[in-house]
Please model this.
Amino acid sequence: MNYEQFLNLYSEAVLTSLSFFWKALWAFILGYIVSSAIQVFVTRERMQKTMGKAGKKSIALGTFFGFISSSCSFAALATTKSLFKKGAGFIPSLAFLLASTNLVIELGFIIAIFLGWQFVVGEYVGGVLLILFTWEIVRLTRPKKLIRNVRRKLNDTEGEEKSDTDTPNWKEKIQSKQAWKKVAKKYFMEWGMVWKDVTFGFTIAGIIAAFVPQSFFQTLFINAGNNPGFFSILEHTIIGPVAAFFTFIGSMGNIPLASILYSNGVSFAGVMAFIFSDLVVFPVIRVNAKYYGWKLALYIVAVFLGALVATSIVMHYGFAALNLLPDSSNSQSVAQTERFAIDYTFWLNLVFIAITGYLAWLNFGGKSKKKQQEHSHKDNSNGGKKGIIEKLVFWLAIFSFIWLAGGLIAMV
Model:
């Protein structure tokens, strides 16, 4: 590859990354507005009281509360730990965790943009199957003693948290300007949690789309694009989580990568396994180990891996039986479509950017400089200590910005 070819590919990679983000922007904003509003109007304490400790109803409620919760994996992990510590059952807690990273509204928007309606159906139906398979695996393996020991250790080391007994109901909150200021604050907190994953994930997707040849995917995923048989499908569902493990990007950031896999012939099962794998990546395993210890963290990973492989295969052959399986050989990558047209995406982005401006005014506009500094200090004091993985992702995001800026300069 000569210098001119590299510059062409570099420009292509950067344009692809930026077009990915442009196409998804309105969906991100809409999803995080909905998620933030729900988090303000439905408190964690009310969720825990409603979920109970065990049974079908508790699992269904855990799934529902996950569905209306934040899509950020790390926020979901923290909420899951809190629910579990306060007495929610282990399986309902896992149901909440799985639903909050696989069944959330904003994820469906992003998948629809990059992959199409079959994958949206696969995400939501598969998310429910993922919870059911997890429930069955935990029921069969019976880790009651391990769970009891971890719960006791959590209560011994962290103590009891204050309950939110005086919180007004959502009907009163929704009419309050103060509540909507909290929605605005949550909205910017959501972006604060995901911007690194999204930046790095979209940048990597553009690089892979431009620089990685199709032959690589055909080598990594056996018979990709060639009507794979059962064992090839099984291999795809195993390699999908492995690929996710090494990219360690959150559920919102890895959808463009999933679209690249799909456009290069990876099976429906393999792509779904990749999407479902956001909870088996190393940063998530490490956080779970910090919360519950390595023994339970590795048990959870094993359960999730078994459940996602089974779910992906069932979804693949279920769609095939109903003649709903998308044909990847006729797929067109988002990178190959028109990038910055004056279309519905353009107008939706303008509308939701304006809404973001209003939320910014609600969150920042009414505060004095002193209060903003105190608020900033408070936020930093709550999350001042960053782990190695978090620092790594931060610097990867910074290098992503440098890469994108360099590509734009190279085009001039």
